Amino acid sequence: MAESKVQKPKAAAKPRKPETRLGMVRRARRINRALAELYPYAHPELDFDDPFQLLVATVLSAQTTDLRVNQTTPALFAKYPTPEDMAAAVPEELEELIRPTGFFRNKAKSLLGLSAALRDDFGGEVPGRLADLVTLPGVGRKTANVVLGNAFGVPGITVDTHFGRLARRFGWTDEQDPEKVEAAVAAIFPKSEWTMLSHRVVFHGRRVCHSQKPACGACPIAPLCPSYGEGETDPEKAAKLLKYELGGQPGQRLRPPADYPGQPAASAPTAAVAGGAA
Prior knowledge:
Radius of gyration: 19 Å
Largest sheet: none
Oligomer: single chain
C-alpha cells in the first residue's frame, strides 16, 4: 500500500447548515473524485473470464463474500463451462460444488434455471440488455447492472448493502429500497460515471466505511462526510480497522487486475475469512 493513499484526515467540519440540492450534488461529485484518487484500481472483485462466468459468480455472491465465490468458481466452471453444460447438471452435484457459498439449494435452482433460459431463449449467450437479464431466474437489477457494466460496458449503478449504506451516510439519499437508491444516485451523477462510481463506493464500504465500525479517523473523505463520527475517529485506532490492501491484507480476487496494489487471495478454502467479511 502506498503511504500516500491513506492519509490522516483533516478535522471534520462543524455541524453543517441545511444543504441545498445543488450543494449536495457538488459535494457528492467531490466525494466521487476523492474516491477515484483513493481507488484508481477499483474493479469488480469477482474473478471471471466471460459474461456467463460473471453472471453465475454474481448470483453466487448473495449472502457471502466475493472471496468465497472466487474460491468456489474454478471447480464449478471446470465442470460446467457453458450454459448448456450447467443446464444439464445433476442438481445434487451442482449443489455440492457451490455449497461453500451458502444457500446452495436456492442458488443451484437459480443457476439451473438461468442456464436453461440462456440455452433455450438466448442461443446460449448472456444478453446485453437489462430487460432481458432480469427475466432470468435469480437475476434482479443489482446482478443485471453488475453484468452490464463489467461484461458489456453498459453504465449501471450496483446497489448492494455497501453502496446503499454509504449513499445514506454521504447524504445522497434517505431511501432504503435499492431501486429507489439507484434512481436517486443516478440523478446526481452523469451516466458515464455510474459503473466506476459503484466500484469506488463498494471498495470504500469494504475497506474503510464498515457497517458496524467505520474507520472515520483514517478516512480521506471525512471532511466531505456528514456522518463523520459514527465510527472510530482516533487516527491510530481507525487505521487498525482498515481492510484488504489498505490494511496490508490480501484482496478478494485470486486473479486481481495487474494494477491492484495488494496481494492475490489464497485459493485454499480455509483462507476464505482472511480478508474479513465483504
